[in-house]
Structure formats: C-alpha cells, structure tokens
Amino acid sequence: MALTQDVRGAYANGAGTAMPALGISALFGVLLRNAWTILAVLAVFLALAAAFLLLNDRKFTAETKILLDPRDRKVLATDTAPTGTGSDTALVESQLAFVTSDAVLGGAIDRLKLVDNSEWVKESDLTTFMNSAAGEGMDRKAAARAVALEALRKSVSVRRSERTYVMEIRAQSRDAGTAVKIADALAQAYIAGQAEDLAARSRTVN
Predict the structure, then answer these.
(1) pLDDT band at 82 (very low <50, low <70, confident <90, very high)
(2) What are the tens digits of pLDDT across the range 24-68?
(3) Does the pLDDT of residue 173 top 60, yes or no?
C-alpha cells in the first residue's frame, strides 16, 4: 500500500517521465534513416499496381443502334408491304438472335481478320481447344477460327431497348478502333441479311 502511494506521489510531483515530442528536424532525421525501407515499400506497391493493370485489360465498348420493323411483310406481285404487327416479341427476338449467330459472327471474324489477332486467338486457348474433344481432328486454321468465334461471342451483346423497337449492338475490345469495326460489321450483316430475306421472298412470288 505504501509503495502505491509513493508511485502516485512521484507522478503527482512531476517525477514521472513522458515521451519527448519529435520536432520537425528529428522527424526529418527519422525519414532519412529509413529512406531505403520507405522506397522499397513504395516500389512494391507500384509493382502491384502495374501487375493489376496488366492482368485487368482495359476494354473499349462501341455501340450501334438499329431501328427494327416488327411488322410481318407480305410480298405482292409489284411490291413488298407491311401487313401488321404479328407476333411482335417472337419476331424481335429472332432478329436479335440473328446478329449473334455463328454465320454473322463468323463473317465479322473473316472480314476483320480476327484470327490473326492475338486478342481473339490466344496461343494458350488455341492449344487447349485443339487438345479438347471439340477440337479433335481440326486443322490449326479451323481451330483458330472456332476460338475466335467463342471469344467474339463473349465480347458482343445485342439487346432491345426497353419498350422500343431499337436494337442495340455492343462490342468490346482492347482496341477502340476494333470495337467500332466489330459493331459496324454486325450491323451491316444484319441489314444485308434483311435485304437478302426480302429479295428471296420476292423471287419466290415471281
């Protein structure tokens, strides 16, 4: 009990010692003495940031919009005319599916030579595919096209704007120009397909 009183009395009388406050010059000295440690930690963080950027490729998105005509068309002897809305939802969905079909995506691959682009045909993916059951018996060129087709399918989205007849085609790529070219190629393929369909109907009537 006496010891406790002595200790309290010592602090009360200012006999206890407190940690000295660091001045600016002292703090600067601490930083200088630990400069290499600080630089090493900073270098590690910069390396981690660089690795993150390399592993998470930035991608550009290009979008094009097309106005759909959901009406059925009746082919007459002299012209082609819309006849009514018909099964609106089913018709629109079929047109959306057409844009992401193998034929349309494959056409974009051939037109833009994506088979020769490492973004769309990675060597590791090509090797894996050729060693799989799906790639069995394929030559390298056909296998590369199949790999590019799958990569393109994952980078393209097609949807109908809510409560409208506008189709939105979006394409992603690490290169902004390539993204624009892909979206444009798919839109052109859709338009060409519609024109060909109408021409075929006209030939059938004639």
Answers:
(1) very low
(2) 777 777 777 777 887 777 888 777 766 655 555 678 999 999 988
(3) yes
- Name the amino acid, one letter, at 10: A
3-state secondary structure of 77: coil
Helix, strand, or coil (residue 74): strand
Rounded to 5 degrees, φ, ψ at 18 are -115, 155
Three-state SS at 81: strand
Helices (H), 56-175: 88-99, 102-112, 123-130, 140-155
Retrieve residue 78's tokens: 């002299």
Tallying the residues shown for the chain, one arrives at 206
Rounded CA-CA distance 95/194 in Å is 9
- Residue 103 · residue 176 · CB < 8 Å: no
Residues 6+ apart with CB under 8 A from 81: 73, 74
Quote the radius of gyration of the chain (alpha carbons, Å): 34
User: How far apart are alpha carbons 72 and 119 in whole angstroms?
Assistant: 40
- Phi and psi at 84, nearest 5°, equal 150, 175
Q: Which residues pair with 174 in a beta bridge?
A: none
